[in-house]
């Protein structure tokens, strides 16, 4: 009789500890890798999610019922300036020029923050095209495709 009472007591404790509609705790991990930083949201099951991007900010929208524990994001990757809870999601503030890619890996959601392109490639000005009047006819014919040269 006593064993039955203990078993019933344990069952009641388990049920009391997991109320219906309980929120899921979601851990967060971060890291730096060659060419990108990463933030991972450790869901127990793969969630539906969406990402909204605008200049320098990405907002991840997860389903209700999850509580994202940002304690694991104390040490941010080099190209992530900040992470915080935002209304209805998690806001990532990106370093200037950084871009993101995101994906699921099993139940986890990973966001890679890609390093900005080297300034030499991104800032290299493209030479302006010469106006048609300043191009020599020989140079224009030599660079045009054969069909265009025959038609011109």
What's the layout of helices and strands?
Layout: H1 2-17, E1 24-33, E2 36-42, E3 50-54, E4 57-61, E5 66-68, E6 80-86, E7 89-94, E8 99-105, E9 108-114, H2 119-123, H3 137-143, H4 146-151
Parallel strand pairs: 1-5
Antiparallel strand pairs: 1-2, 2-9, 3-4, 4-7, 6-7, 8-9
Question: What can you tell me about this protein's structure?
Answer:
The chain has helices at 2-17, 119-123, 137-143, 146-151, and strands at 24-33, 36-42, 50-54, 57-61, 66-68, 80-86, 89-94, 99-105, 108-114. The protein has 152 residues and is α+β, with helices and mostly antiparallel strands. The strands form two sheets. The protein has a five-stranded mixed beta sheet, with no helix packed on it. The chain has a four-stranded antiparallel beta sheet with strand order 3-4-7-6, with no helix packed on it. Strand 6 and strand 7 form a beta hairpin. The chain starts with a helix and ends with a helix. Residues 5-20 and 131-152 have low confidence and may be disordered.
């Amino acid at each position: 009789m006593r064993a039955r009472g203990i078993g019933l007591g344990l069952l009641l404790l388990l049920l009391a500890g997991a109320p219906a509609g309980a929120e899921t705790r979601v851990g967060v991990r971060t890291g730096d890798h060659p060419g990108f930083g990463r933030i991972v949201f450790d869901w127990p099951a793969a969630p539906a999610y969406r990402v909204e991007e605008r200049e320098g900010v990405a907002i991840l929208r997860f389903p209700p019922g999850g509580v994202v524990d940002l304690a694991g994001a104390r040490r941010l990757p080099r190209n992530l300036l900040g992470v915080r809870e935002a209304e209805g999601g998690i806001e990532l503030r990106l370093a200037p020029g950084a871009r993101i890619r995101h994906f699921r890996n099993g139940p986890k959601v990973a966001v890679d923050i890609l390093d900005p392109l080297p300034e030499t490639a991104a800032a290299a000005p493209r030479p302006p095209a010469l106006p048609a009047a300043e191009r020599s006819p020989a140079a224009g014919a030599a660079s045009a495709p054969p069909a265009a040269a025959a038609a011109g």
